[in-house]
Amino acid sequence: AQRQQKADDFATDLRREISGMRAEGLTQREMVAELNRIRRKTARGGQWSLVQLQRVLARLSVLTAMTSASQ
Questions:
Q1: DSSP assignment of 14-43, as one string?
Q2: What is the rounded distance in angstroms from the CA atom of residue 61 to the CA atom of residue 68?
Q3: pTM score
Q4: pLDDT confidence of 71, banded at 50, 70, 90?
Q5: DSSP class of residue 44?
Q6: 3: three-class secondary structure by DSSP
């Protein structure tokens, strides 16, 4: 439960950056490149990969759905 909460918090912290990149029309691969270019570390402190970004996007989608359902 604690690990899941940390992952949720990490994804939530990235929400604004990812939303901005989506608004600019960046592809997922371009988002990965940008996150690495600006030296935004992953939750474990490493560089981004496409799979890691896709997992964060999926987590944000679930969190958004949960928030919408509870309102």
A1: HHHHHHHHHHTT--HHHHHHHHHHTT---T
A2: 11
A3: 0.84
A4: low
A5: T
A6: helix
Spatial CA neighbour of 40 closest among 18, 64, 22: 18
The tokens for 9 are 């918090």
Look up residue 27 and give its two tokens.
């592809």
Q: Would you say 50 and 29 are in contact if contact means Cβ atoms under 8 Å apart? A: yes
DSSP 3-state of 5: helix
pLDDT single digits (tens) 5-57: 999 999 999 999 999 999 999 999 999 999 999 999 999 999 999 999 999 99
Residue 52: closest CA among 21, 66, 12, 44:
44
Contacts of 41 (CB under 8 A, 6+ apart): 47
Tokens read off for 19: 């939303």
Tally of CB atoms within 10 A around 35: 22
